[in-house]
What we know:
196 residues, mainly beta, five-stranded antiparallel β-sheet, 0% helix
Amino acid sequence: MTFSATGSPAPTATFEFSPDGTHWFEVPDANVTTTGDRTTVSVDIFAPIEADGWQTRAHFTNALGTTTTDAYVLHVGTAPTADPVVQPGYVNDGDPIVMTFSATGSPAPTATFEFSGDGTHWFEVPDANVTTTGDRTTVSVDIFAPIEADGWQTRAHFTNALGTTTTDAYVLHVGTAPPPTPSSNPATSTTATPSS
C-alpha cells in the first residue's frame, strides 16, 4: 500500500491504518523514500482475511502545511472452493432428480451450471437455480431424467474477484427397473372328488 506527495521542501510522511475508519493508528516502521520534491510512503503486509475493510492513509507535512490522503480500503477475500461432488446411484427413467453444486468464497461467488452429452462439449443451463447465503453459493437444476440422458455429465463454475473454480463432473446414471418376473410355482387348483 503506497501513497505519494510532492512539496517544496519535500514533505515528511506518516502512514496510518484503521480497522473502522474512526480510530487511526500510526505504523512506525513504514517505508519512506524521498526523491527530489516527491515523498513516497508504503507498507508491505501479508493481508489476513480479518483485515478486509481496513483502511489506510498517509499524512504529508512540510514547513508550509499538511495534507492527508483519501483512505485506501483494503479488500481481502478468498477464491472459491467447491464442495466435493457426490456421485449418484441410478435413477429410474423419467424419475425426478436434483443436481446440486456448492462452493464458498469471499466475496460469495457467482455460479453457472453446465451439461455435456459427451464430456467434451459443454453447454450452459441459463435457468439454473442459484442461491447465496453468506459466503456460500449453491446452483442446482431439477429434471425428470430420460433414459437418453444416461451418461450425461454436469458441472458448475464458481467465480469471484479472486478466481474461478470448476467442480468435478457429476455423471448421470439413468436406467429402467426390470419387469416383474412370473412366478415359477403357479397356484394349482384342487378338485374334490365326491365319495361313493
